[in-house]
Specification:
Oligomer: single chain
Strand order of the largest sheet: 4-3-2-1-5-8-7-6
CATH superfamily of the largest domain: Class II aldolase/adducin N-terminal domain
Largest sheet: 8 strands, mixed
Structural class: alpha+beta
Shape: globular
Number of strands: 8
Bound molecules: zinc ion
CATH architecture of the largest domain: 3-Layer(aba) Sandwich
């Protein structure tokens, strides 16, 4: 069961994530980030205004049926995206829905995402495209979207945006940033050549070289002024082997 301290900490980390995603131009005035509250059938989500403006006290608690049980709200109209994913994906601890520019543009291309570089490596098993660009504001639409998502890490909502899932707040944010950059890189490359996926052999070499993806998180907190350098360095020093930020 989640303790009060855990929930308080999760709200702060969610707010930090919203600020990083906005700084990276993944989030704008719309979009929402959520996190599963461990041991419960509830999650935390930012209310229906620009995420970067949210304080921890604004963060709402919502059930897996999509009902707000704490926080002033209102919650986003597309909250069914989050509730449907948490109901169906026990492996998912964080969900982002955004209307990021390059994800929308690439989601309009039938070729879809081609994993040709480091940024795209975690999406090597594909990013499905959901053809319905309506707002996912009801359970039936959300259920169909989750079926299309399957076990993947992300899905494009054609002409609308994308949804990215991860093990928790920071992992979801980093994946979303990588997806947006991968889309941007591919669109650039497609303007003058044919994009080919990285070969399996090369991918193995890239994976072998990879650092812990969470290493970028302290840098992102610093880059976007979310925390002071001293506070970020203090949290790095307390890291234990195998722990992420
Ligand atoms: Zn949307």
């Amino acid at each position: 069961m989640a303790t009060r301290t855990t929930v308080t900490e999760l709200k702060q980390r969610l707010v930090d994530g919203l600020r990083v995603l906005t700084g990276e131009e993944v989030l704008s005035g719309s979009g929402h980030l959520s996190v599963r509250i461990p041991g419960t059938e509830t999650f935390l989500i930012n209310p229906r205004f620009a995420g970067v403006l949210a304080d921890p006290k604004d963060i709402c608690t919502v059930t897996f049926e999509g009902r707000r049980i704490a926080g002033k709200g209102p919650i986003p109209s597309e909250t069914p995206i989050h509730s449907a994913i948490y109901r169906n994906r026990a492996d998912v601890g964080g969900v982002l829905h955004c209307h990021a520019r390059y994800s929308i543009l690439l989601g309009l291309q039938d070729i879809g995402l081609v994993p040709f570089n480091r940024e795209a490596r975690m999406f090597a098993d594909g990013v499905p495209i959901f053809p319905d660009s309506h707002g996912i504001n009801n359970d039936d639409l959300a259920r169909r979207m989750v079926e299309t998502l399957g076990a993947h890490h992300a899905i494009f909502l054609r002409g609308h945006g994308c949804v990215v899932v991860g093990p928790g707040i920071e992992g979801t944010c980093i994946s979303a940033i990588q997806l947006e950059r991968a889309c941007q890189d591919q669109l650039f490359l497609m303007s003058f050549t044919t994009v080919k996926p990285i070969t399996d052999a090369s991918r193995a070499r890239v994976n072998a070289r990879l650092e812990n993806p969470y290493r970028s998180w302290p840098f992102l907190l610093y880059k976007h002024g979310v925390k002071s350098k001293a506070r970020i360095r203090a949290s790095i020093r307390t890291l234990k082997e195998g722990e992420h930020y």
